[in-house]
Amino acid sequence: MKVLVAVKRVVDYNVRIRVKSDGTGVDKDNVVMSMNPFDENSLEEAMQMKEADVASEVIAVSIGDEKSEDTLRSAFAMGADRAILIKTDVELEPLAIAKLLAKVVEQESPQVAILGKQAIDDDSNQTGQMLSAMLGWSQGTFASNAEHVDGAINLTRETDAGLETIKITLPAVITTDLRLNTPRLPKLPAIMKAKKKPIETHEADSFGIDLAPRLEVVSVAAPAERAAGIIVANAAELVEKLKEAEAL
User: Fold this and answer.
1) Which H helix or E strand runs over 147?
2) How confident is the model over 225-232, as a mean pLDDT?
3) Confidence category of residue 160, pLDDT binned at 50, 70, 90
4) Is the pLDDT at 108 greater than 80, yes or no?
5) Where are the domains of the chain?
6) How much is the pTM?
7) What CATH number labels 2-244?
8) Where is the Electron transfer flavoprotein alpha/beta-subunit N-terminal domain (predicted)?
9) C-beta contacts of 77-81 below 8 A and 24+ residues apart
C-alpha cells in the first residue's frame, strides 16, 4: 500500500526566533530552515512500515515556495520513493493545507496519511484532524506507538490523562508525537542521490481550491524578557521576599 507523508519547511528548532521590526511576522531571512521535527517522525514511521513490508511506496508532500524542494530532498535522503511539491508563495492556514492534501490523496490513493501532530512555526495542531474529516477516514492523533496488525493499526496516543490505546481501521490519518520513534540520519550517498531525484510540482492555484485566509494577523511581538532573579541567603529571607511580592 501507499503511504503519504506531509513534510513542512520551518525555521530550524535550534534557531533563536527574531520578530520583524515592523511586527508583521517572524524574520526568516538568512536563518537555517529544516524539516519540521514532528514530520521527521512521520517520515521515519513510514520508512519503518516499508522496511516491514507493510508499505510498498512512501510519497512525501510539501506545500510552500520553491525552497520547500530542500525539505523534499531531505525526505528523499531519508528514503522516500517520490516527492510532490504543491507550490505557493502564500502562507496557508491549516484548512487550506488540509484541502490541498485531500486533493493529493484523491489522486494518489494511499491507505495511510501520516502528518506531524503540529508544525513548530504555528503550533496549530489542526491539519491532520481536518484532513481526516474531509476524507471520512479513521484518525489516530498524537501517536507515540503504532503496531500494524491485519489491515488495522493498534495506536497508542498521548493524552492529558495518560496513554490511550485504540484500534483504527484503514484508510487512516495518523498524526505523530516526538516519542513515536527516533528519525534516522541520512548517509552521505543518500544525500547525494537525493539531489538528482525528480520532484513532481503543481501550482496550488491549479487545484481550484479557495485558499483565502480566514484569520488576519494584526501584529507579532516577542515575549517579554524575564526579569533577573534575586539570590537570598536563607529560607527566612526567601519567605520575606515572597511576602513582599504578595506571593504568600
Assistant:
1) strand 138-149
2) 85
3) confident
4) yes
5) 2-244
6) 0.86
7) 3.40.50.620
8) 23-211
9) 77/186, 77/190, 77/191, 77/193, 77/194, 78/40, 78/43, 78/44, 78/47, 78/183, 78/184, 78/186, 78/190, 79/43, 79/47, 79/50, 79/184, 79/190, 80/5, 80/43, 80/46, 80/47, 81/57
